[in-house]
Amino acid sequence: MFRNSYQGGAVFDIFSGQGKDPVAKWKLSGGPSAIHKEYNKEVKGFVYCLEGSSQTVKMQMPENAKMSLGLIQRFLVLQVNIPRCHDFSIELVITDLEHLKRRLHFSTVHKKLAATPLHARIP
């Protein structure tokens, strides 16, 4: 998806809430009542709000799970606001130079760290 994009700078944005349809290349699960865009005064911009169970309301990028984002940056920074007493989870699938997939699953549901060479569940 971003494989042919210039990523040589210090920062490379893969998502922003700005624009006409910023989630056009995303797979959204949960329906329009569960995922909506709204203006946030603290951020001074648009954000996406996901309301409902973290198991049914999802945003996935790229839309096709078999595709790769093709990111080569060393760091990934996410800005997420999780309301108190709400569940949250995010799964990152990282492919190394030998094309082995490694999954990192961050979730408020997990109580302790569990890791294998190819998978990690992180509270």
Describe this structure in words.
By secondary structure, the chain is mainly β. 0% of the residues lie in helices and 31% in strands. The protein is globular, with a radius of gyration of 16 Å. The two termini are 29 Å apart.
Give a quick precis of the structure.
With 123 residues, the chain is mainly beta. It contains no helices and eight strands.
Query: Which of globular, elongated, flat, extended, rod-shaped describes the shape?
Result: globular
Q: Give the termini separation.
A: 29 Å
Specify Rg, calculated over alpha carbons. Answer: 16 Å
What is the subunit arrangement here?
single chain
Class by alpha and beta content: mainly beta
Total beta strands: 8
Strand share of the residues? 25-35%
Work out the helicity level: under 10%
Summed up, the domain count is: 2
Tell me, rounded to a whole number, the average pLDDT.
86
User: Unreliable segments (pLDDT under 50, ≥5 consecutive)?
Assistant: none
Task: State the strand order across the main sheet.
Answer: 5-6-8-7
List keywords for this structure.
mainly beta, 2 domains, 123 residues
What topology does this entry show?
Layout: E1 27-29, E2 35-40, E3 45-50, E4 58-60, E5 89-95, E6 101-107, E7 114-115, E8 119-122
Parallel strand pairs: 6-8
Antiparallel strand pairs: 1-4, 2-3, 5-6, 7-8
Organism: Nothobranchius kadleci (African annual killifish)
Domain CFA20: 1-123
Protein name: Chromosome 3 open reading frame 67
